[in-house]
Design goal:
The chain has 231 residues and is an alpha/beta fold. 31% of the residues lie in helices and 29% in strands.
Length: 231
């Protein structure tokens, strides 16, 4: 996914509101849209722009500048018809990244056919997880395992390369644990053609060295995990 700088969040239910607030906290420019004036008022002082409008109105979308954002997130509750129509309109307006909250699996499949870039399921994809993927191109995935702890997959920082884990002191200095390392190895096929295969080191030991382009699977509190992505 291309790193976006400007976002439109269409629909301010629980999921949409959490996404919008998290994006604002990360410093992104956010436009919010909803038909409920009360919900819009909550964002009037923190969003770049807040519109009370029907997002199925193509002219209204154009006038609000929604076609100019890098990424649009559609979260319009159980209204399948509206989310499909909004997806089509945003595609026509040229929005490159369109993320839509699905209501049911068949709904997600239809949205993908219409050009949605990513389909999210609030039961699986939390607002934190979604926004974190925007905040750092080095984050591959986040799984919340409890209110306090998460598992994050992140590209190993350059300063970790060619160093054994015991010398990095992740637990002591960063308060996170490495539960696995994913890396790609070049192997030769029987026909002599090189091929890339993924190797996964489960529960790596202190002698295991971090290699360039390794993906570290880390367990810790979100604020501690986030520090690793900034190294």
């Amino acid at each position: 996914m291309v790193m976006a700088k400007t976002f439109a969040v269409i629909g301010l239910g629980r999921f949409g509101s959490n996404v919008a607030k998290a994006l604002v906290e990360k410093g992104f420019e956010v436009i919010v849209v909803d038909t409920d004036e009360e919900k819009i008022n909550e964002f009037s002082d923190i969003a770049a722009a807040a519109f009370v409008m029907d997002a199925t109105d193509e002219k209204a979308l154009k006038d609000a500048g929604i076609g100019e954002v890098d990424c649009a997130i559609i979260s319009v509750g159980q209204n399948v018809e509206s989310s499909i129509l909004i997806t089509m309109l945003l595609k026509e307006l040229g929005v490159k990244e369109i993320i839509v909250k699905e209501v049911m699996p068949i709904h997600g499949k239809i949205l993908e056919k219409l050009g949605a870039t990513k389909i999210v399921n609030p039961e699986r994809d939390t607002a934190l997880r979604l926004v974190s993927s925007f905040a750092s191109p080095r984050i591959f995935d986040i799984i919340e395992v409890s209110p306090d702890y998460s598992i994050m997959e992140v590209i190993a920082p350059k300063e970790f390369w060619a160093r054994p884990l015991r010398d990095i002191h992740l637990r002591r200095d960063y308060h996170v644990s490495v539960i696995a390392i994913r890396r790609r190895k070049t192997v030769m096929r029987e026909n002599g053609i090189p091929d890339l295969q993924e190797e996964i080191l489960i529960a790596p030991g202190g002698d295991d060295e971090i290699e360039e382009n390794d993906i570290l699977v880390l367990l810790g509190k979100y604020q501690d995990l986030e520090k690793i992505t900034k190294l």
